[in-house]
């Protein structure tokens, strides 16, 4: 399940565990096998305890612990930056504009970063806040409660864009313009976006549809479709926010890697 190309980029980023000289215990399962188990859960949405052991990926708890540890070590964030740098070096990132939007998912088990959803009869839910480049490549993703207003995450999303290397000069982390729907319509935030040297193109409430912004915004809807193609992200089953965020970041890495594969 893990391609050689992806593994070659990921393996140097994984933290190395030192075994005790005396009483070393059972030899840990290879990281690549465990990663296959994590991806199996991400793709199928199966519960950790039902991960089939005959597949050779180890137990669900082993995969859960490894996902937690790698997320705490910043592995997924660094992998995402590596992939973005390769795309940037190939001039395949569209910095002329970025697009922001959010998507709601139910959270039956509640937990941190959940809240009563105004679009799901007040049931507990979370929001995935996403920012992409002009081609729909994920630049950053955030997790909040389902009752958080979209516009409150506009500046945090811009701040979450990592410094993208790959070209001569300073790493880039700021697009030329920003496209968003009516949920982000607020002059205070428009001014703050302008102060960062970014041109805001945000639809205004009360105006007729058909402004033409959808010509540029459709890419983020496609990226959300890709994200929720991973069944584990359609419903948030994790009480712990960091585990769900780890899945989100890993999914963004996989989407970015696909974009990189399209260059071949």
UniProtKB/TrEMBL annotation:
Species assigned in the record: Streptomyces coeruleorubidus
The Insertion element IS402-like domain, residue ranges: 2-80
Domain (Transposase IS4-like): residue spans on this chain: 98-254
Top-level taxon: Bacteria
PANTHER family for this protein: BLR1914 PROTEIN, PHP DOMAIN PROTEIN
Protein name (record): IS5 family transposase
Pfam families: DDE_Tnp_1 (PF01609), DUF4096 (PF13340)
InterPro entries per record: IS402-like_dom (IPR025161), Transposase_11 (IPR002559)
